[in-house]
Amino acid sequence: TDSSVDLVADSISIVSGKGVSGVDTALNTVGSLHNTTGNVELTDVDSIGDLAPGLVIASLTNANGSVTLNVPSDLDVYQLAANGSSSDVVLTSGGIFNLLPVNNMPNTVTAGRSLSLHSTGTLYLNSGFSAPQSVSFTSDADVKISGVTFTLSTVDPIVIQSESAIRINGTLESDHSITLKLEQLLPDHGV
Q: What is the dihedral of CA 109, 115, 119, 123, to 10 degrees?
């Protein structure tokens, strides 16, 4: 990535055989992005005066490679899969982050190895996800898990970390362990 935007569009559909890397975009929606091998690495920026800031991932599939997305504002994900056995998914949102359910799909996000989601705003987990190695959810605001049952079998502990609150309305199960970290910052009263 560099300081210039490589692709500006409302919505894109891409089929790639060898990866999508180092692309700076100003998009509203990834309608479909399907890749065969190699990594998918996108950094999205909002255009000045963008009437729909943020990014929607309708469908992104990488058959054999990792997926890394950096979005400075809101991120909504409906379907994302990195299927290779060494494939990681790393998604970072500078705003509110939503994993949203799709009819008849048990998991919105699937990683072949590890899954890491980070949000500056509230992180909403309203749909399933899977990763066999490790799962990490962090938010500078709240983490809200709502109305779903998560049963995970990971090698490493599942980590859920928030600087504000962790709210779970559903079931969270693991064959290993689940670590909840709440790091509320107390106001400095000059003491």
A: 50
